[in-house]
TrEMBL record:
<dbReference type="InterPro" id="IPR036280">
    <property type="entry name" value="Multihaem_cyt_sf"/>
</dbReference>
<feature type="domain" description="Cytochrome c7-like">
    <location>
        <begin position="52"/>
        <end position="119"/>
    </location>
</feature>
<dbReference type="InterPro" id="IPR029467">
    <property type="entry name" value="Cyt_c7-like"/>
</dbReference>
<keyword id="KW-0732">Signal</keyword>
<protein>
    <submittedName>
        <fullName>C(7)-type cytochrome triheme protein</fullName>
    </submittedName>
</protein>
<feature type="signal peptide">
    <location>
        <begin position="1"/>
        <end position="22"/>
    </location>
</feature>
<dbReference type="Pfam" id="PF14522">
    <property type="entry name" value="Cytochrome_C7"/>
</dbReference>
<dbReference type="InterPro" id="IPR026352">
    <property type="entry name" value="Nanowire_3heme"/>
</dbReference>
Length: 141
C-alpha cells in the first residue's frame, strides 16, 4: 500500500513537471508575435553569394528596433527583393547601405567583422573575398 502510494506521488510529480514544461514551451512560442516582431522565418539570400541570413527576431524582439528603422527606406517588405539589386554588396554595406546603415561598428557590430554571423554558408568565403575574379565568377551572370 505504502509503496503504491509513493509510486502514485512520484507519478503525479513527473506528470505535472512535464505538463509545466510543455506549457512553458508553448508560451515561449506564443510570445513571438509576428505582427509585433515581423516574420519568424529567417530571410536567406543566395545572391550574389550563398548564403546570408537575416532574422527579424534578433532585431525587433532582441534589439528592440521598430519596423520603420528598416522598412521601407533600407529594405522593402519582400524577402529576396534586395538580391535583385546590383549594389547588394559588401562595398555598399561598408559605405552605410543596407545592413551597413547599422552594422557600422557603432549601432551594431561592424560589417567587416564577424563575417560568419551573417554568412552562414561560409565555406569558400575566404577564397571568394580574397579574389575579385572568384566573386565575379560566382555572381548572377
Ligand atoms: C533591422 C531591419 C529590419 C527591421 C527592424 C524589420 N525588418 Fe522586415 N525585413 C527586413 C529585411 C532585410 C527583409 C528582406 C528584404 C529583402 O530581401 O530585400 C524584410 C522583409 C520583411 C517582410 C517580407 C517577408 C517575406 O517573406 O516576403 C515582412 C512582412 C516584414 N519584413 C515585416 C516587418 C515588420 C512587421 C517589422 C516590424 C515589426 C519589420 N519587418 C522590421 C529587415 C527588417
Ligand atoms: C536598423 C539597424 C539594423 C539594420 C539595418 C540591420 N541590423 Fe543587424 N543588428 C542590429 C542591432 C542593433 C543588433 C544587435 C547588436 C549587435 O549585435 O551588435 C544586430 C544584430 C545582428 C546580428 C547578430 C544576431 C545575434 O544576436 O547573434 C546579425 C547576424 C545581424 N544583425 C545581421 C544583419 C543583416 C544580415 C542585416 C541586413 C540584411 C542587418 N543585420 C541589418 C541592427 C541592425
Ligand atoms: C551584417 C551582415 C554581414 C556581415 C557582417 C558580412 N556580410 Fe558579406 N554580405 C552581406 C549581405 C547582405 C550580402 C549580399 C547578399 C548575398 O550575397 O547573399 C553580402 C555579400 C557578400 C559578398 C558578395 C558581394 C560582394 O561584396 O562581392 C562577399 C564576397 C562577402 N559578403 C564577404 C564578406 C566578408 C569577407 C565578411 C567579413 C569580413 C562579410 N561579408 C561580412 C552581409 C554581411
Amino acid at each position: 500500500m505504502k509503496k503504491s502510494l509513493s509510486i502514485l506521488v512520484v507519478g503525479i510529480l513527473l506528470f505535472s513537471g512535464a505538463w509545466l514544461r510543455a506549457a512553458e514551451e508553448e508560451k515561449a512560442v506564443e510570445e513571438y508575435d509576428e505582427d509585433t516582431y515581423g516574420p519568424l522565418a529567417p530571410i536567406i539570400w543566395e545572391k550574389p553569394v550563398r548564403s546570408v541570413v537575416f532574422e527579424h527576431k534578433n532585431h525587433t524582439q532582441g534589439a528592440g528596433l521598430e519596423c520603420d528603422s528598416c522598412h521601407d527606406e533600407l529594405f522593402p517588405m519582400e524577402a529576396g527583393a534586395s538580391a535583385e539589386n546590383e549594389d547588394f554588396t559588401m562595398e555598399t554595406l561598408y559605405n552605410g547601405g543596407y545592413c551597413g546603415a547599422c552594422h557600422d561598428g557603432e549601432t551594431a557590430f561592424a560589417s567587416n567583422k564577424r563575417c560568419t554571423a551573417c554568412h552562414i554558408g561560409v565555406r569558400g568565403q575566404a577564397r571568394l573575398s580574397g579574389s575579385a575574379d572568384a566573386v565575379e565568377g560566382h555572381g548572377t551572370k
